[in-house]
Fold:
Amino acid sequence: MNIKKTAVILSLSFMMAAGSVMAADLPAAGSAAMGEMNALAPVFPGVGPVIEGTAPLADSVKAAAPVPVSEMGDLFLNHVSMPKNVHYEPLGRGDSAIARHLGMMTVKGKTYTAGAVALGATFKGKESDEFFGGMFLPRGHTREAGGRMLAFNMGLLKLESAMNEVFLQAVDEARRETGEKLPYNFLTVDMVHVEQLHSLKGSPKTYSFSIRPAFSADGFLLPLFIRGFASKVGDSYRFLFLAAPDSQKDMVSETGLSLMKQREENNIQK
Structure:
């Protein structure tokens, strides 16, 4: 299996497990909806520093409404015209959730071509305005939005230990079920860097976060780079999650940010 296929498999597994970890830090009132959205949880509102106003309080987190799943559309990358050096292909076909929210993005550079798993969604409607609008005020964010952000960043900081616990349990189950004496450190992850969600300088309507997990699988090291974006574009809210080999992080980050600003087209020529 080549490194790109391995990266895809680990990235998808990491996304789903990370969603479960971070959902535990999100409002209890939203647990039912978040159950459907575990794989997308990492790209939802998280937290950067409070821009303005009173610091988020625990009661504001508990009182938050569930994510408006009913107003969730597919990933906006399905509907924008791509730059000539960028190609996006859904991993699934038709109207399945995979086809709507997950795909592969490639970026052709001067010396190499970068590839990333792309995961995300677009939200639009009254409930989406109520849930996400508080993140994108002209001079800051609401207490409720700040609470959700705080919960997300707490999840990021817990992610390394939580993931290693999941891997350890998986190895233990494999040893008991198969009898194979797998080493308990067969699969581990070291979080090399965590950049908490924050509003981007010069782009007040865009948030971003990144993590750099280095996976060790049976003695082989696979450093990955994961970047998330949240933005308000017109009357909709975009969320994009990109996972790529760590060596390609700069090209993937720059392309992701530029795509967040692309206008959606009604009729895209393939």
Remarks:
- Strands lie at 72-73, 86-90, 102-108, 113-123, 187-200, 203-217, 220-233, 236-245.
- The first strand starts at residue 72 and ends at 73.
- The CA atoms of residues 149 and 156 lie 11 Å apart.
